[in-house]
Amino acid sequence: MRTLILLIITLISSGLSAQVAVNTDGSLPDNSSMLDVKSTTQGLLVPRMTSAQRIAIVSPAEGLMVYDLTTGSFWFIKQSVWTELADKSNGLWQVNGSNLFYNSGNVGIGDSDPAAALTVGNGDKFQVQASDGDVTFTDDEASINFPESAGTNSPMIYMFSGGTNNQNRMILAHSPAYSNTGLRYNDLSDLFQFVSNGTVGVNVNPSGAIGINTNAVSYNFDVNGTARISALDISSSLEYLNDAVVSSNNATPLEVRRSQINLSMTNVASGNFLDANFSYSAFDGNPTIIIGNLTTGTGEWYKVQITAFDVTTTSCKFRMVNTASDAITMTGSWSILLIGPK
């Protein structure tokens, strides 16, 4: 009976004060609380139910909380929607200091079925692979835009600042199916190269020299093969190495060859002449023979007039005429130039 009377008095007192303190030390409730539960050996036990029972609650009030036995977690009503109090240690996203990370599966932004570790856009338009960090754009109209660089030493694209020597240090290819065709930087030889099916066609070295069909760029413009030039303005000198082929306006290529002819005369009288034969590889037509400078000579070679005649596609003759007033003896080697159809 005394216990019942004490309980009635406690309830009446609680109703008058509008605050309830549940404790074993008789302390008053905190002024900011309606219910103040205090214990060091026991806890607060909220209603426990299954997910079906929780969802079946009619018109749940904002802030209503229960423990869901099915999910093993607390749920509360927020803006009329059941919201789970998730355990961050078991959630998808994890926190490490000020960092947020996710180690399981793929992440999709605007994509409910991401194909890579990070996918942006419906249809996996932008992908970042987890294994090696490859970045892939699957949209054939995708582009990368860089803002205008204001800094003096601010490159628009900067990559591979270090590392070991690599022939394929950087490749701009047509597509993955043509990975050996495109623009390549080769840091083995420090060259930018235009490559087709793995074969280098054009090399550009750091000095700006361009080599076509040659990896050994020795001149500012170095062509190994036939070149077509519609107009050529030479301000200093023109040099060619070995034989060369030049195309004229009539579309007939002309081959230019350098050679040498050795001639000699012994006691040839004034006004007389001596002929010498000269052979060469075949042209497609009769070449033009130009006699150049004397490279070596003895005797009175300066009194001799030399003329080429009987020119064919494979040979010609040189006539040496004594233009002096007396007999002469001489030997000499002359450089010659042959220009003919090829």
Give an overview of the whole structure.
With 342 residues, the protein is mainly beta. The chain has four domains: 13-85, no CATH class; 94-137, no CATH class; 170-223, no CATH class; 254-341, Immunoglobulin-like, CATH 2.60.40.2080. It has helices spanning 2-17, 51-55; strands at residues 20-22, 35-37, 48-49, 65-68, 73-78, 81-85, 94-96, 99-101, 107-109, 118-120, 126-128, 135-137, 170-173, 182-186, 191-196, 199-204, 210-212, 221-223, 244-247, 253-268, 273-279, 288-299, 304-309, 315-322, 328-341. The strands form seven sheets. It has a six-stranded mixed sheet, with no helix packed on it. Strand 14 (182-186) and strand 15 (191-196) form a beta hairpin. The termini are far apart. 9% of the residues are buried.
Features:
rod-shaped; 39% strand; 6-stranded mixed β-sheet; 342 residues; mainly beta
Q: Low-confidence runs (pLDDT<50, min 5 residues)?
A: none
Number of domains: 4
CATH topology of the largest domain: Immunoglobulin-like
What amount of the residues lies in strands? 35-45%
Count of helical regions: 2
Order of helices and strands: HEEEHEEEEEEEEEEEEEEEEEEEEEE
- The CATH class designation of the largest domain is Mainly Beta
Question: What is the end-to-end distance?
Answer: 131 Å
Question: Major β-sheet, in short?
Answer: 6 strands, mixed
Helix share bin: under 10%
* Strands ordered across the widest β-sheet: 13-14-15-16-17-18
Structural class: mainly beta
Quaternary: single chain
Counting DSSP E segments of at least 2 residues, the number of strands comes to 25
